[in-house]
Design brief:
Elements: H1 4-13, H2 20-31, E1 35-36, H3 37-45, H4 53-65, E2 70-72, E3 80-82, E4 90-94, E5 100-103, E6 129-132, H5 135-139
Parallel strand pairs: 4-6
Antiparallel strand pairs: 1-3, 2-3, 4-5
Length: about 140
């Protein structure tokens, strides 16, 4: 988990002003990967009492646009956010409870998977979602 000074450096490195709402949301995303916006609003409010829903949505958009945060949205799910960016990792998603777990790239360096026909594209990333049942749901 990055400390307050590291979060400030991250914001400045992408040309953003350091504000309390940005710090609160970025810290919450680091602390709680794969939360949805509603849960992040609650997590951010433990850091800054008077942060509005709209402020959290605006901050998430800016953090995503600047590459500090990644937005994922597995089929049938609301958008989720994570601070693990730039490493071309994938996700395991539980069909029953919706739990999401990071999975390192399947083999080798990005894009780690090669399409059978790239149609002339220069492929630089593969986004893979593995679906199944988590250990807790399998045991239930």
């Amino acid at each position: 988990m990055p400390d307050h000074a590291e979060l400030e450096r991250d914001l400045r490195a992408v040309g953003l002003r350091v504000t309390r709402p940005r710090l609160a949301v970025l810290d919450a995303v680091h602390a709680h990967p794969h939360l949805d916006t509603e849960a992040l609003i609650g997590a951010a409010r433990t850091r800054v009492d008077a942060i509005s829903h709209q402020a959290v949505y605006d901050v998430l958009r800016v953090l995503t646009d600047t590459g500090l945060v990644r937005r994922i949205q597995p089929q049938g799910s609301v958008a989720r956010y994570e601070a693990r960016v730039g490493d071309n990792h994938h996700h395991l998603v539980c069909r029953d409870c919706g739990a999401i777990v990071d999975v390192d790239c399947t083999v080798g360096a990005a894009p780690c998977l090669t399409p059978s026909d790239d149609a002339g594209f220069e492929v630089d990333e593969a986004e893979v979602v593995f679906w199944g049942r988590c250990p807790a749901c399998t045991a239930a």
